[in-house]
């Protein structure tokens, strides 16, 4: 028995990258995972993979830009497994670009997915956690919010907004709820695919330089498996070569 075994964990952005790796790891440690993401075919395939390995998984198509979708993800967890122990707010995009390119639609998209999506997660799960008298939010942030660099200002702003609301939520949470931030550095995911600026995209770090999604999944698992009175507030995970 571990601190993960038997827990019901819902994950946004579960169709690839950190979300997918976290689902696989947590399910292998006995969690009942509820997968949310925009690509239903990927979620279905991932759930089948988990179940083939002896794990437990459910899924529902989830676009975190829609409050109802996020509410449905939480409802799916409760309907299937009668509880929700952890919500991993992982969904995120990074169409980073210089300000001079004025990619305002990209700015709006990052605000909607990276920030508003987390707020919708809190709105959906917090009443459930209060009713149960327990629960944990794991919000995936970024080292981009710790060290501001050119081309990433709007992306960093959305991540710093999540950092701010996470700390505020932690202070309001009381003794029964936990709030964790996990801040990855460069990770080899589909993040670069969302970059719309050709100049910035050509400068994206190579996979060899980056961490693997599994590295971040282990950090998320570490925070979840702690005793209920231990609140791991912030974990920063970056490649040793990252400045």
Strand order of the largest sheet: 3-2-1-4-5-6-7
Gyration radius, in Å = 17 Å
The secondary-structure element order is EHEHEHEHEHEHHE
* Alpha carbon gap, first and last residue: 38 Å
Based on Cα principal axes, name the global outline.
Answer: globular
The number of distinct helices, counting runs of at least 4 residues, comes to 7
Which stretches of 5+ consecutive residues score pLDDT under 50? none
Briefly say what this structure is.
The protein starts with 7 loop residues before the first strand and ends in a 6-residue tail after the last strand.
Features:
single chain; 7-stranded parallel beta sheet; 7 helices
Structure description:
- The protein starts with 7 loop residues before the first strand and ends in a 6-residue tail after the last strand.
- The chain is globular.
- It has helices at 17-28, 40-52, 67-81, 104-132, 153-173, 198-202, 213-225; strands at residues 8-11, 32-37, 56-61, 86-89, 135-140, 177-184, 234-237.
- Strands 3-2-1-4-5-6-7 form a seven-stranded parallel beta sheet, with helices on both faces.
- The protein contains seven helices and seven strands, in the order βαβαβαβαβαβααβ.
- Helices cover 44% and strands 16% of the residues.
- It is α/β, with parallel strands linked by helices.
């Amino acid at each position: 028995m571990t601190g993960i075994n038997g827990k019901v964990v819902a994950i946004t952005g579960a169709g690839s990258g950190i979300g997918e790796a976290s689902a696989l790891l947590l399910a292998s440690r006995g969690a009942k995972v509820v997968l949310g993401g925009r690509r239903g075919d990927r979620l279905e395939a991932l759930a089948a993979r988990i179940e083939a390995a002896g794990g437990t998984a459910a899924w529902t198509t989830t676009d975190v830009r829609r409050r109802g979708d996020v509410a449905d993800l939480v409802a799916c967890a409760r309907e299937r497994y009668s509880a929700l122990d952890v919500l991993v707010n992982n969904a995120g995009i990074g169409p980073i670009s210089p300000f001079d390119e004025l990619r305002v639609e990209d700015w709006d998209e990052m605000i909607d997915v990276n920030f508003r999506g987390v707020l919708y997660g809190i709105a959906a799960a917090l009443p459930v956690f209060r009713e149960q008298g327990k629960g944990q939010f794991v919000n995936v942030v970024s080292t981009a919010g710790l060290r501001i660099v050119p081309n990433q200002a709007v992306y960093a702003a959305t991540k710093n907004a999540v950092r701010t609301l996470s700390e505020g939520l932690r202070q309001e949470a009381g003794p029964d709820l936990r709030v964790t931030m996990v801040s990855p550095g460069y990770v080899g995911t589909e993040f670069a695919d969302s970059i719309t600026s050709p100049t910035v995209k050509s400068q994206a770090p190579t996979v060899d330089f980056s961490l693997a999604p599994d590295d971040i999944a282990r950090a998320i698992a570490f925070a979840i498996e702690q005793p209920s009175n231990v609140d791991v507030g912030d974990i920063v995970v970056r490649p040793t070569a990252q400045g």
